[in-house]
Amino acid sequence: MRAIDFDQASDPASAIRLIQQPNARFIGGGTNLLDLMKGDVEQPARLIDINHIGLDRIAELPDGGLRIGALARNSDTANHPLVRTRYPLLTQALLAGASPQLRNMATIGGNLLQRTRCPYFMDTAFAMCNKRAPGTGCGAREGVNRMHAILGASSACIAVNPSDMNVALAALDATIRVSGPKGERSIPIAEFHRLPGTMPQVDTILHADELITAVDLPPSAFARHAHYLKVRERNSYAFALVSAAAALEMDGQVVRQARIALGGVAHKPWRVPAAEALLAGQPLDDTRSLQAARLLLDGAQALRDNAYKIRLAERAVVRALREARENSGEVA
Questions:
Q1: E strand or H helix at 312, and its extent?
Q2: Which residues are within 8 A (CB) of 267 and not within 5 positions of it... i.e. 6 or more apart?
Q3: Which helix (H) or strand (E) holds 326?
Q4: Would you say the pTM of this structure is higher than 0.85?
Q5: Mean pLDDT of the chain
Q6: Taking CA 89 as the corner, what is the angle to CA 84 and CA 93, rounded to the nearest 5 degrees?
């Protein structure tokens, strides 16, 4: 049994001070970190409890946007009146993720940092995993890879980001607010998660001594026409094979602006501005939606077991756009 030291931070400043200790990790809900520790994938020497540092508020911003504290629980965020009415896409994505019990514990900040999904990474019995042990190789490339990436992968890693929330935040152009020893900074969600390249062990651009404090959402024109579609192998508690977040601003039957993000296909939520621009100023029909989907999937590369994801993702985008167009903006 490995001994672990434990500290409890009282405010963000003390949390940042405590995280300077060797091999320390923040713990909020712990729904991902504790799983990884039980499997011996993560081996922190010290846990810093940040549950009592006052970052769980959800508040309106002066410009009409919304600030969601990093420690707001997924279930509280999904059901907050301002989120449900102004950002139904985020509510839908959060409610599609995990079980109700996990959503009651999981936090927004922790969800952003959820490690990329790959059974070869999660199981330490497999020696080859560049994400867990850099330089050992990628067991998944020649192994069972039906769940793995078709976009943005590298020879070093083909894992995918498992978060539903991240896909919705990408479509909504969220900004991640962080604080660290050198002060505060804001990171657009599109830049927050990394593609694997030659360093798959690094999932985000967050520094090890930085604390996520909040997620800011800009004012949204997509409250009335948005849909999150998650395709999975069973109805609950399953990661997405493919997911699609679609948000539209409509002027009658014409698309004024569109946002589309794909999940389950890459190391990060996948957006292609050209696909969204194709829809702007045009009536929306399935033919045009399929053209946009094919732009999103341009360059997709299948491995032995996951070629099905290309066609599945195209169909998911078409259906998500159709549902978004017809959506009333209400969340069931």
A1: helix 308-326
A2: 116, 149, 152, 153, 157, 159, 160, 161, 193, 194, 195, 196, 200, 203
A3: helix 308-326
A4: yes
A5: 96
A6: 100
